[in-house]
């Protein structure tokens, strides 16, 4: 490897690793802020939160790679241009393309790595991350009994506490009211009530059970006698008992994290690789075409063709001509009741045809959207990888033209082009999902547009264009102003000459 390649690579790899970490952190914070309300307040181990952040960090890498390549290439060649290193390279007879060659090889390797990552690691990370996120979202909040408010998140219990006094491993309670529903039937009424003057609340067996130690209280219960029913007042038995110390143990099985079978999430397109996506897309395509082509054949069952013998002409009826009109002009030999029945039957058949058409339209449309969605995700396995190389073609020439390094102008330009890429990708995906364009065009729309823009900037960089220099535009405006002033002077001279000649 030559010294020029080492110089450029050393200038590229440092900013690339740094910007990749920063971009992954930014995207991770965006995801956390999106689900923040559903993550806090849950009785979940710290390890599960670490796993969630790890999975989502892996998920954000395919999105962060193109932006990191764009920003680092801009910074690299911007720094080389700002400190006149790029000028020295060109003065030695080395072209800009030759200076970019080593970084281009590295970016090609990043592109291949990005495709492998999208196809192998990203589906696994999506499956693990989103299944864990679903389990955390569906987990109940931490047990939190507030003063003066009935708490009913414990299955079978309704609890109210007047005062709470914190302690190291337990809570001292004052004025407890507990409604117990052993069958979890809250509509059956409050048939078992416990009132206590004070008590203690703590957990045992690694927070698997909640214990209430109640002091100086009464227990009221109402039950039916043998063979009786609650609905009959004569069969009810009322019991009251006083206690000095009573221990009540409640299971906390409904709290905490319950892991769901991950196979329930494998149907989603984000959890599949390119081969699986192609197989599912092909099967959906066959089902879509089969449903669409069989629609006309299946709809024939909703139509009936019947003619009375008296109305048929004696001669053989032609396929085209006035036969239908002449048939309609003949006076039908039917009664009024038969006519009403025919009209009612025709109306019923028309409604059936309409309902059949609407349901099939919805079914075929949803089947087509599913086909487009899986096919689009399969193409994105390639487009996200190729976008790394496209971003390099944008960033390297722009850095050579702008000649500014650091995190100032390169960050601004990178964000603008990344937003443009994001908007173009969303627009292409929308066109593809709606069936307005074929899926390959919608999937590759953003890369195609940005590739043309990259070739334009590369051409400007090869010609040492001063595209972003302020002096160029100042001189250009002065030339226009000068031409305008000269034109006004010329018109005035011609006008004066005409006056003098007259």
Q: How would you sum up this structure, described in words?
A:
By secondary structure, the protein is an alpha+beta fold. The protein has a domain at 157-251. 60% of the residues lie in helices and 13% in strands. Helix 5 packs across helix 9, helix 9 packs parallel to helix 11 (439-462) and helix 10 packs antiparallel against helix 11. The N and C termini lie far apart (81 Å). Residues 226-231 and 306-318 have low confidence and may be disordered.
What topology emerges from the helices and strands here?
Blueprint: H1 3-34, H2 36-39, H3 46-82, H4 85-91, H5 96-138, E1 157-166, E2 171-180, E3 192-204, E4 209-224, E5 236-251, H6 274-293, H7 295-299, H8 323-329, H9 336-402, H10 409-433, H11 439-462, H12 470-501
Antiparallel strand pairs: 1-2, 2-3, 3-4, 4-5
Helix pairs in contact: 1-3, 1-5, 3-5, 3-9, 3-10, 5-9, 6-9, 9-10, 9-11, 10-11
Mean pLDDT: 77
Tell how many strands the DSSP assignment holds. Answer: 5
Strand residue percentage: 5-15%
Report the biggest beta sheet as strand number plus sense, adding barrel if it closes.
5 strands, antiparallel
Count of helix runs: 12
Distance linking N and C termini: 81 Å
Poorly predicted spans: 226-231, 306-318
Instruction: Tell the overall outline.
Output: extended
Which range best describes the helical content: under 10%, 10-25%, 25-40%, 40-55%, 55-70% or over 70%? Answer: 55-70%
> What is the strand arrangement across the widest sheet?
1-2-3-4-5
Alpha-carbon Rg, integer: 39 Å
Structural class: alpha+beta
The string of secondary-structure elements, in order, is: HHHHHEEEEEHHHHHHH
């Amino acid at each position: 490897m030559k010294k020029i390649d080492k110089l450029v690579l050393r200038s590229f790899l440092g900013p690339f690793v740094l910007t990749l970490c920063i971009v992954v952190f930014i995207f991770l914070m965006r995801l956390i802020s999106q689900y923040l309300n559903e993550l806090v307040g849950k009785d979940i181990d710290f390890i599960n939160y670490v796993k969630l952040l790890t999975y989502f960090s892996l998920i954000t890498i395919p999105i962060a790679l193109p932006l990191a390549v764009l920003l680092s290439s801009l910074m690299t060649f911007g720094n080389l241009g700002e400190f006149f290193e790029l000028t020295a390279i060109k003065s030695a007879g080395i072209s800009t393309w030759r200076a970019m060659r080593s970084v281009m090889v590295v970016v090609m390797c990043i592109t291949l790595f990005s495709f492998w990552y999208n196809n192998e690691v990203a589906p696994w990370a999506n499956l693990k991350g989103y299944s864990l996120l679903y389990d955390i979202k569906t987990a109940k909040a931490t047990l939190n009994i507030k003063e003066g408010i009935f708490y009913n998140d414990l299955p079978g219990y309704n609890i109210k506490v007047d005062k709470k006094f914190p302690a190291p491993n337990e809570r001292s309670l004052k004025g407890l009211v507990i409604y117990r529903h052993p069958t979890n039937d809250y509509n059956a009424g409050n048939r078992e009530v416990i009132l206590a003057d004070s008590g203690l609340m703590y957990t045992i067996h690694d927070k698997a059970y909640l214990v209430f130690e109640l002091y100086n209280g009464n227990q009221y219960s109402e039950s039916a006698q043998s063979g009786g029913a609650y609905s009959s007042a004569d069969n009810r038995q009322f019991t009251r008992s006083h206690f000095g110390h009573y221990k009540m143990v409640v299971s906390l099985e409904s709290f905490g994290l319950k892991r769901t079978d991950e196979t329930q999430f494998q149907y989603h397109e984000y959890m599949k690789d390119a081969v699986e996506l192609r197989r599912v897309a092909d099967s959906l395509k066959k089902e879509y075409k089969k449903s669409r082509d069989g629609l006309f054949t299946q709809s024939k069952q909703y139509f009936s063709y019947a003619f009375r013998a008296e109305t048929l002409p004696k001669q053989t009826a032609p396929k085209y001509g006035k036969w239908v009109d002449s048939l309609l002009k003949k006076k039908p030999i039917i009664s009024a009741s038969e006519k009403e029945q025919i009209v009612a039957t025709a109306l019923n058949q028309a409604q059936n045809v309409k309902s059949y058409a609407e349901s099939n339209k919805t079914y075929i449309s949803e089947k087509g959207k599913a086909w487009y969605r899986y096919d689009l995700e399969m193409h994105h396995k390639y487009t996200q990888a190729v976008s790394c190389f496209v971003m390099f073609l944008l960033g390297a020439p722009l850095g050579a033209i702008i000649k500014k390094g650091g995190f100032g102008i390169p960050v601004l330009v990178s964000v603008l082009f990344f937003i443009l890429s994001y908007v173009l990708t969303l627009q292409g995906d929308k066109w593809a999902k709606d069936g307005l364009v074929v899926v390959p065009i919608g999937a590759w729309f953003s890369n195609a547009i940005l590739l043309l823009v990259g070739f334009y900037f590369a051409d400007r960089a090869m010609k040492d264009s001063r595209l972003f220099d302020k002096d160029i535009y100042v001189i250009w405006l002065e030339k226009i102003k000068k031409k305008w002033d000269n034109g006004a002077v010329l018109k005035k001279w011609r006008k004066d000459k005409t006056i003098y000649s007259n």
